[in-house]
């Protein structure tokens, strides 16, 4: 899942980014609304965690731009204002959820993941294809009943390939969805991760390479 964190308090923004990355999310960070709008033009984010009270381009305007574009990106709005009126106003601007500061980290993470699932309503809660089973909520994966000891990125690649339901997924699409802005698009990161993932499966041929096009399960 690809997430954009938009928060002008750099320490808080960086803390959210670190927590999310430790939990396996691909995260980009913007410290102002103008940068956020530029990024959403370039990247198809699943969720935007958006501080409402941004200087310059206000969070309300960022949210309004996303709503006007009709994109499937979900918006979790953060604000220090916790009144019911503020929440209603924020949701009325097009936000999909609303969380008051200060917040609990587990709740922020849970709400972000829930919005990510809503961004892909066609996906089943548990991804199954043949003998492969993957549970995104519990972050477990098994092959023919054997639990797979996957790293964060291996889990993300397998989840994305299973979610594609047989479609061939280009390497650059995997890089965009499973990694984030710190990834170097010129490296063999995706290929190396797929190779490690294959080595952990009971049948390496489950993940096929389609020459010149990408990978599929």
UniProtKB/TrEMBL annotation:
Keyword annotations: DNA-binding, Phosphoprotein
Single biological process term from Gene Ontology: regulation of DNA-templated transcription
DNA-binding region per UniProt: 124-217
Source taxon at top rank: Bacteria
Domain Response regulatory: 2-116
Domain OmpR/PhoB-type: 124-217
Pfam families recorded: Response_reg, Trans_reg_C
Cellular-component GO terms for this entry: cytosol; protein-DNA complex
Post-translational modification 4-aspartylphosphate, affected residues: 51
Gene3D superfamilies per the UniProt record, alphabetical: 3.40.50.2300, 6.10.250.690, Winged helix-like DNA-binding domain superfamily/Winged helix DNA-binding domain
GO MF terms held by the record: phosphorelay response regulator activity; transcription cis-regulatory region binding
Protein name: Response regulator transcription factor
Organism: Streptomyces aquilus
Higher taxonomy: Bacteria, Bacillati, Actinomycetota, Actinomycetes, Kitasatosporales
């Amino acid at each position: 899942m690809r997430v954009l964190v938009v928060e002008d308090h750099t320490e808080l923004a960086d803390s959210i980014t670190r927590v999310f990355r430790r939990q396996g999310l691909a995260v980009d960070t913007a410290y102002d609304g103008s940068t956020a709008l530029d990024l959403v033009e370039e990247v198809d984010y699943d969720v935007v965690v958006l501080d409402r009270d941004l200087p310059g381009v206000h969070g309300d305007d960022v949210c309004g731009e996303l709503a006007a574009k009709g994109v499937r990106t979900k918006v979790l709005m953060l604000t220090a204002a916790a009144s019911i009126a503020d929440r209603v106003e924020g949701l009325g601007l097009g936000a999909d959820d609303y969380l008051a500061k200060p917040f609990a980290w587990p709740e922020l993470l849970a709400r972000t993941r829930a919005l990510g699932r809503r961004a892909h309503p066609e996906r089943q809660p548990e991804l199954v294809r043949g003998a492969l089973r993957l549970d995104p909520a519990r972050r477990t994966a098994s092959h023919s009943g054997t639990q797979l000891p996957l790293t964060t990125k291996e889990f993300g690649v397998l989840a994305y390939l299973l979610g594609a339901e047989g479609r061939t997924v280009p390497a650059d699409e995997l890089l965009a969805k499973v990694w984030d802005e710190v990834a170097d698009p010129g490296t063999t990161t995706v290929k190396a991760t797929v190779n490690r993932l294959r080595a952990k499966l009971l049948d390496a041929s489950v993940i096929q390479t389609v020459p010149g096009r990408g990978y599929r399960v």
